[in-house]
Structures are given as C-alpha cells and as structure tokens.
Amino acid sequence: MGKTSLVTAPIQNWEELGTRASSKILDAQGPKRLGRILLFIFGFFVLLLFLPYRQTIPGRGTVTALRPEDRPQTVQNQIGGRIEHWAVREGQEVKKGDTILVISETTQSYFDPELPARLNEQLDAKRGSETAAVQKIDATKAQMRAMNDGLHYQMKAAENKVLQAKNYVSIDSADLLAVQKFYETTKARLERYETGYKNGLFSLTDIETRRLKLQEDNAKVISQRNKLDNSQQNLYNATIELDNIRAKYQESISKAQSDMSTAVSSRASAQGDIAKLRNDISNLNVRRGLYVVRAPQSGYVVKTLKAGIGENIKEGESVATLQPKTPLVAAELYVSAMDVPLILDTSDVRLQFEGWPSVQFSGWPSVAVGTFAGKVFSIDRVSSTGGKYRVLISQTNPVPENDEPWPPQLRQGSGVYGRIILRSVPLWYEIWRQLNGFPPSLDKEPAPIKDKI
Predict the structure, then answer these.
(1) Mean pLDDT computed over 103-124
(2) Nearest to 245 by CA among 165, 145, 155, 166
C-alpha cells in the first residue's frame, strides 16, 4: 500500500521524493537497534549472574562490653543506713575508691559511740576468765598427781597388811594342824593307858595324868582354832580396807576429773566468747568503714538510684549505676538458628554502627564505605528470646591496613548491624538459594568456637 501511494501521489520535485524515502528507511532500522540493545542487556545480565558474590549472614544487635567487669554495674551499699551526703552527680567521672555516698547508722545496736571500748572491756574480762580456768586446770592436775602419789603409798601399806594377814592365817593354820595331831596322839595314848589300867599295868595316877594332858591338848586345839579365826578375820578386814582405799581414791579421782572437765569447759566457753568478741570488734571496725560508699572501679556515674538527704536505704540496695571508663567494647548480633552452624571461628564480620554513615553492599563487602571490621568471639550455647542466637563480635586485632579502628565514641546499648562473611559463590547461585530459602554454603566443617579473652 505504501508503494501505490508513492506511484499515485503527485510528485512536486525530486527533493520531496528523497525526503520521503529516507524517512521510510529510518523507520525500518529502529527495531534492529532495539533488538541489539536488548541483546546487549541480556548478555550483560547473563555475565552479571556469573559474577562472584560473597555470602553473608545478617544480624542486628547492640554494642556491649566483651568482659563482664566492663559492663554497666550498680553500686550497692553493704549495710543499711540513712543518706547523709552525696559526693557525686550524674555524668561525673570517678576514680576507683572515690566517695559516692555517705550514710549514717540506723541500727540501735551500734548507736553507742563508746561501743568499741565496751567491747574491749568485755574482751579483757573474758580473757581473765580464760586465765582463771587455765589456773584451775593446772591446780586440778597438781591435785590429781598428789592423789596418785598418796594412793600409791596407801595402796602399798594396805597390800602389805593383806599379805601379812595371809601369812598369819597360814601360820595359824599350820599350828592348828600341829596341836590337832598332838591331841589325837594324846587321845590314843589315853585309850592305851585305860586298857593297861584294866589289865593292872598302870596306876590310877597315870590315867588321871593322861586325862589332864588330853584336856590340855584339847584346850590348845580350841585356842589355836580361835587364833586362826582371828587371823582370817584380820585378813578379811585388811582386804576390806584395801577396797575402801581404792573406792575412796576412785571417788576422789572422779571428783577431780569432774572439776577438770568443768575447768576445761569454762576455758572453752571463755575462748568462744573471746573469739566472738574479737569478731564483733572486727565487724564493728569494718562496719564503720562502710559508712562511705566508694566507687569499685574508675568510670562514670550514669544515674543515681536514690535521692534526697535523710532517706533510709536497706542493706544491699543499689544506689547508683556506674559505667566503667575504658571498656573493651564488642558487638552482640542476633542471627537465625539456621545460620548458626555455618559460622566459623575465623569468620570476618563487617559492622555498621548507628550514628556513623555507611554504605554496604551485601555481596561485595570490599566496596563498602563506613563499615568496620570484626571477628567472631563466641556464640551462645542456648538461644535467646525469639529463637535467635547471640554472637559476640570483637574488634579485629591488629586492625587491617585498609580499615579504621572502632570509633572511641561508641556507647554501650547503641544499635549495630553486621554481616558475617562466608564463601564466594556465583550471583545466580545466591539468587537461587534465596528464592528456595536454603542456607549459605560451606567450604569445610566448622571448627568449635573457643571463647577468647
């Protein structure tokens, strides 16, 4: 249809014909140029997909301190009391040992200003009681030694009496046996004489003489038997006396031992009271040193938790918040539980701190601006609230040449955003991984992360 119009249209001149022809030619080259541009864009996109992309694990958190002693702490008073004087104000720098607060006593037991002197007097009295108890113990020991010596001699004398009585019993027994033999002999002779008298061999005078002899021998037997009974009675009495001496000694020894036990108990009680009084005196001296609440370390008084003069505070109550002066800062990032197993102990981290302008590209950390380098310090063994794990990031030491050290103005509690850097992969793989929700890749098995100080 375009050719018909060219033939049938009236031609004014050749210039008009050339203009129309060139416009038609230009309209025919436009789609080709657009195709070339699209082809170039497609090729550039394909090349871009094969560019190296650095996998990262993102995390958000806050600035904290690496060591527990560098984190904000509350200053507490060890004893209860009444506020008398504040020596600091909020935001003030203090050194270790500087006075923060002065309190006065509120416990009635410590109101007496002469209490140390009173306790020292009680201590001297108890020491006197201990000395008296020691002296009583020594006296009782001397008494027991004297009793042992006296008993030794008494026992020897009593034992000798018993032995002497036994000898008398033996002698008397032998004498009784002898006189009994004489009596039997005399009795036998009398019987023979009586038989001879009947036969006319002896006279009546001989018979009477023998009868008198028999009576004398019988009297001797009775006398010797009585003497033996007396000897046996003396032996029994000597034995009883020996037992009495032993019983009396045992009684005296028991009483002395009881006195000894009482003295030892008195000494132990005095020693316990002395130890208690010493403890009370030491506690009192320490307590009077606690009327001044001092800074445990150098830092800044962030906030006072009590106000006013004359207000009572309890024992162990917090009175102020102290921020250490030169903390070893770190960043705590919270990462997904799916990414925790992929973090290596050698992983580098790029951090963005709130308040410091920065530009960071997720896959190309080398071209980031305003970020700071860090190293993985530790990973919590259990998850935090929300199912995420806390990762502590410390400052790289030494600082890389192309990086700057962390800003000294960092304050604990400020926000931080970081990326834990992993391996390099093609861009198309990262896009595919993100679309499918897969975790990042690993070059090797992660080694156990050890806490470093």
Answers:
(1) 84
(2) 155
Q: Whole-angstrom Cα distance, residue 334 to residue 336?
A: 7
Q: Is 201 helix (H, G, I), strand (E, B) or coil?
A: coil
Structural contact between residues 331 and 390, judged by C-beta atoms closer than 8 angstroms: no
Query: What residue type is 133 in one-letter code?
Result: A
Distance of CA 278 to the CA centre of its chain: 25
Phi, psi of 32 (to 5 degrees): -65, -45
- Binning pLDDT at 50, 70 and 90, where does residue 3 land? very low
Neighbours of 195 (CB within 10 A): 11
pLDDT tens per residue, range 29-67: 667 777 778 777 877 777 766 666 677 788 899 999 988
Topology of the domain covering 115-289: Helix Hairpins (1.10.287)
3-state secondary structure of 49: helix
The structure's pTM equals 0.56
The two beta strands, 52-65 and 329-335, are antiparallel
At the top level of CATH, the class of 54-71+327-453 is: mainly beta
Distance CA 343, CA 346 (A): 8
| CATH architecture for the domain at 72-105+291-324 | Beta Barrel (2.40)
Each domain of the chain, given as residue ranges in start order, spans 1-49, 54-71+327-453, 72-105+291-324, 115-289
